[in-house]
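Annex B. Sample input.
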Amino acid sequence: MSMKRFIYFFGIVLLLASCRQETSREQITDPIDYNKYLATASNPTYDEALNEVEFWSKRLRPDSSGVGDLGPLAAAYTKLFQATGNASYLSDAESLYMKAMAISANNKDIYARGLARTYISQHRFKEAEEILRESYQGISSKRATEFMLFDALMELGNYDEAETFLKKLQNTSDYNYLIRKAKWSDHKGDLTNAINYMETAKDIAESRDSKTLKIWTYSNLGDFYGHDGRIRDAYLNYLKTLELQPDNAYVKKGIAWIAYSYEEDVEEVRRILDSVMVNHKVPDYYLILADMAEYEGNEKLMNSLLDKFIETASSNVYGAMYNTSLIEVLTESRPEKARRMAEIEIENRPTPEIYALLAYTMAMTGDKEEAGEIIDSHVRKKTFEPMSLYFSASVYKLNGNTKELKGVKKELEEASFELGPVLVKKIKEL
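Annex B, continued. Sample output.
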């Protein structure tokens, strides 16, 4: 190594050591690990999905119903949505599944489950439940439908019936059971067992050498590790996902969040998101960028980014997909509108998380006592989701309930990674 390169290298080492000393945290991310996945020109998942759409579309001849081709074509449109974030592809999938159900003499339950998955992606959970129940009463693959009914019921907050299905489905050798048992354990606040179930599911995915299952498992296991404060393990699982799917926008956002929430490296986050947003365009990214602008004290940029989020997330193409985030954002600037939206959302999805959000909007519009009652009856000890705990803490603060506030703040301290530096600071000020 030349003296010039040595001095440069040594300087970088000293700089990184200094950064670590300031934050007292281990450096987790390394651009060398993921730079190759940030190439904006490469979008293989989109290319593959587009080829599938073209292939199955050609098979749908004008003189044939082509019912056997409708399902694969709908699935290809779903892949296009996942690759691009363009929710109009979900509408295409919906239309195809509905057509398949209408003209199919057999396999209607397969198309019903496909349609239900599309509805769940669109946050149309009641419609998903309805189509699944109807299918379940007829000739259907009962176990497959029961798994999906569990998914829909969890989203709707019907936990007792969801648990009944889960007990009926019990089989610790079944990948589909394990990932749902993990979700149930997480819902109950048992993160240790949630991770254990997901790790067992990972073993099955690897033993089958299923690329699809490994991608899903690694990315979700990364999320669970993040919830548990195992940031390096989360990062490594995100990298394993990218090895299999280099253009996976979801895990790139996960790596960006580590760089922001754990390492507070806003410039690196912007570099990652700038790359992702070229091919994957969803409103979520504006929220992260707005949060970072607030962290930097740039109120003008923050408001501009929040306006962009509101504009894009309110588009008809997204339907109800971003309602909860919209309510949260609007509570700060237009609390009355946010409250009206929350009251509608609670009718569609009466979960503890939505009740917490409703209570927060009520408190911000002056009904703090009623908000406190909602927290006590519908939220307290019913959810362990960090944002719900934050909303609860805010309501307790407004009501002067220092005892409950102290307990919730202690729980929130353990969720600092999920909440990010801006909310962590706000929580300390409660």
